[in-house]
């Protein structure tokens, strides 16, 4: 098996088929809706809040609200009363089952539900998927996080409509250090490995450090990518604003950090500061333009044309050119 990551793979251009990059369509379909970009901000407290979710839904982007200190039923009602789709997160504890029961009692159905736990290849996730499919069958269920083909096969068989791949590659993640497990350092090849067996969409989660990594994820089998750090440092990001030596930063902390948990127990995340880089809408526009450029370098006109390109691995034991025959 080849081991590589975002920083040692490059995609190879094919002959351009467009006169302008504006002809390239960066949109993607997930769960019956088409979104402008194959990118979703991470469902973390310092990445998004209700206001940002509303902005994303109104402007054609996918979002997944986080699951911490929030009333999911009220959130869903608020979004749907404005004619917007609702996309929430759940855990696997009794309180999460109670939330599902509340949805059923009030006859409300969020369009997207993401089951979001650290070790998603677990019976607890199987039980929650099956509960959701029985109680709210119209919701599109994303489940994770996982790291192996076996896990993707199981989650799909248990009824997940999409899986989220990535254990430990995140910027505020310390899972690798604390447990010795994960895809940190080889997330892109783990994605490739998982995508070979997937029959449903994969969301590649964690490790994206630059916009070109979006195209690399698509090339290796992702339908969408989930990104935290690149979204945490905007003017409207919910993290606290911190000034250091006259420069402004936003705090960005892991969902499994003591900052998020409120206690130091099974901590697998840390807190960092991200420099503030202006409004979110500018980043989203720049990302779209960069993905359009990626499609044009792939010799295509639509997102999945990126899947057709060859690539090179730079340095290391697996170095070389990889041609599609
Ligand atoms: N993508 C990634 O690499 C990671 C992401 N995270 C994020 O941090 C947040 C908190 O995650 P999590 O701690 O799972 O959420 P929860 O605290 O809601 O825990 C989920 C449930 O799974 C149980 N569990 C069993 N084994 C494990 C295990 N190895 N890791 C975690 N839980 C386990 C927990 O029990 P008990 O607590 O008693 O063990 C708990 O009942 C989530 O948003 C998650 O996505 C966290 C770590 C890695
Ligand atoms: N191991 C941990 N992973 C975490 C934690 N909180 C969030 N995450 C994961 O990181 C990605 C975002 O990664 P980034 O590289 O884009 O910043 C996020 O979607 C989660 O899957 C945590 O505390 N520990």
Shape: globular
Structural class: alpha/beta
**Total beta strands:** 15
Q: Strand portion, in percent? A: 15-25%
How large is the count of helical segments? 11
Structure write-up:
The mean pLDDT is 97. 31% of the residues lie in helices and 19% in strands. It has helices at 50-58, 72-81, 94-105, 123-135, 149-158, 175-179, 187-195, 212-219, 229-232, 258-261, 280-297, and strands spanning 9-11, 28-30, 33-35, 39-41, 87-90, 112-116, 140-146, 162-165, 202-205, 224-227, 241-244, 247-253, 271-275, 311-313, 320-322. The longest helix is centred in the C-terminal third of the chain and has 18 residues, at 280-297. Helix 3 (94-105) runs parallel beside helix 4. By secondary structure, it is of the alpha/beta class. The relative contact order is 0.18. The protein has a seven-stranded parallel β-sheet. A three-stranded antiparallel β-sheet has the order 1-14-15, with no helix packed on it. The protein has a three-stranded antiparallel β-sheet with strand order 11-12-13, with no helix packed on it. It is built from eleven helices and 15 strands. Helix 4 (123-135) links the parallel strand 6 (112-116) and strand 7. The two termini are 18 Å apart. The ligand Nc1nc2c(ncn2[C@@H]2O[C@H](COP(=O)(O)O)[C@@H](O)[C@H]2O)c(=O)[nH]1 binds next to strand 10. Residues 5-309 form the IMP dehydrogenase/GMP reductase domain. The active site is at residue 173. It comes from Comamonas jiangduensis. Its EC number is 1.7.1.7. It catalyses: IMP + NH4(+) + NADP(+) = GMP + NADPH + 2 H(+).
């Amino acid at each position: 098996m080849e081991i590589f990551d975002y920083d040692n793979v490059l995609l190879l251009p094919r002959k351009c088929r467009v006169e302008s990059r504006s002809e390239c369509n960066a949109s993607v379909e997930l769960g019956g809706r088409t979104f402008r970009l194959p990118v979703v901000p991470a469902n973390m407290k310092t990445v998004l809040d209700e206001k940002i979710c509303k902005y994303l839904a109104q402007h054609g982007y996918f979002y997944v609200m986080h699951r911490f200190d929030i009333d999911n039923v009220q959130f869903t009602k608020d979004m749907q009363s404005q004619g917007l789709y609702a996309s929430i997160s759940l855990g696997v504890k009794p309180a999460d089952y109670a939330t599902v029961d509340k949805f059923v009692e009030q006859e409300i159905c969020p369009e997207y539900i993401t089951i979001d736990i650290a070790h998603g290849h677990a019976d607890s996730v199987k039980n929650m998927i099956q509960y959701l499919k029985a109680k709210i069958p119209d919701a599109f269920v994303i489940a994770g996080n996982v790291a192996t083909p076996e896990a993707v096969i199981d989650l799909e068989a248990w009824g997940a409509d999409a899986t989220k791949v990535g254990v430990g590659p995140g910027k505020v993640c310390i899972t690798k250090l604390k447990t010795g497990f994960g895809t940190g350092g080889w997330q892109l090849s783990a994605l490739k490995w998982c995508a070979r067996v997937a029959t449903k969409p994969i969301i590649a989660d964690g490790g994206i450090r630059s916009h070109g990594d979006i195209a690399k994820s698509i090339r290796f089998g992702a339908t969408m990518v989930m990104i935290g750090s690149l979204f945490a440092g905007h003017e409207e990001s919910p993290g606290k604003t911190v000034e250091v030596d006259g420069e402004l930063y936003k705090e960005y902390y892991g969902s499994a950090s003591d900052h998020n948990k409120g206690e130091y127990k099974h901590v697998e995340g840390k807190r960092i500061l991200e420099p503030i880089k202006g409004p979110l809408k500018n980043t989203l526009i720049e990302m779209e333009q960069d993905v359009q450029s990626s499609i044009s370098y792939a010799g295509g006109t639509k997102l999945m044309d990126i899947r057709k390109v060859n690539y090179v691995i730079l340095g290391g034991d697996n170095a070389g050119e990889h041609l599609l025959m």
